Amino acid sequence: MAPSLVGVGVGPGDPELLTVRAIRTLREAERVFSPTMAEDSVGRAESIVREAAPDIAVERLVFAILADDEARATAHRAAAERITECLDAGEQVAFITLGDPNVYSTFHHLADMVRQLRAEAEITTVPGIMAFQDLAARSGTVVVDGSERLHLVTAVDGPGALDTPLADPDAAIVIYKGGRHLPQIAEKLETAGRLDGAIYGELLGLPGQRLGSLRVSADGPGAYLAAVLVPPTRDQG
Ligand SMILES: C[S@@+](CC[C@H](N)C(=O)[O-])C[C@H]1O[C@@H](n2cnc3c(N)ncnc32)[C@H](O)[C@@H]1O
Known about the structure:
This protein is α/β, with parallel strands linked by helices. It folds into two domains: 4-126, Tetrapyrrole methylase, N-terminal domain (Cobalt-precorrin-4 Transmethylase, domain 1); 131-230, Tetrapyrrole methylase, C-terminal domain (Methyltransferase, Cobalt-precorrin-4 Transmethylase, Domain 2). Helices cover 32% and strands 22% of the residues. It contains eight helices and ten strands. It has helices spanning 20-28, 44-52, 69-88, 107-117, 131-139, 163-166, 182-191, 214-217, and strands spanning 4-9, 31-36, 59-62, 92-97, 122-126, 149-154, 171-176, 199-202, 210-213, 226-230. Helix 3 crosses helix 4 (107-117). The radius of gyration is 19 Å and the shape is elongated. The mean pLDDT is 94. S-adenosylmethionine (SAM) binds next to strand 8 and strand 10.
């Protein structure tokens, strides 16, 4: 087989949510990389793989996820160069990522850099279960039905991200990266009459998981790994 890079989604946290294809791909790879904040720190994706398949060896790539743009670009370049070394050595390389590799993931930045270094590299992805799907399942929430719509937004810069989706009462809203702004998000939903029914999930499938009504959890900031699911407005009759 020609050397290749595959981004593998490992789901949101529960090792049982790793797909059969993800496990098979990781076993077939000759090198499995995982993102981490520091060389001596086990990242979330690595701990999920450790629990599901402890025999799979993982090599860490340090990413400056919360640092400035320049530090992030430098870290991505160093990671892409390490991956390229392995591709040049003829290896099948996998890179694990939380949830799905095509949704708010570092993987495509990394893939772009690898492509710049080796235009001929074959790059693919294996989908992963996303946090909001786990949140819907755990809370027994139907996300969308019939002609209802779904907005997936990031609230990393605050609740302004909700303005457009809230204009559509028949749309479900999934809010990622909003932990820091939880009280403001709840306030905005309350004003729009959408707070009742909004579900909050923090550290889903991981130690310390919290799950329940957003109204109850929104008395302070939440974690980075937190998701909110606001179902569409539906007739009760
Ligand atoms: C960088 S994005 C990763 C998204 C991921 N690629 C996906 O497909 O779900 C990180 C955001 O995903 C959500 N998230 C991921 N895992 C989660 C978990 N275990 N519990 C709650 N939210 C989670 C949170 O909103 C978090 O801020």
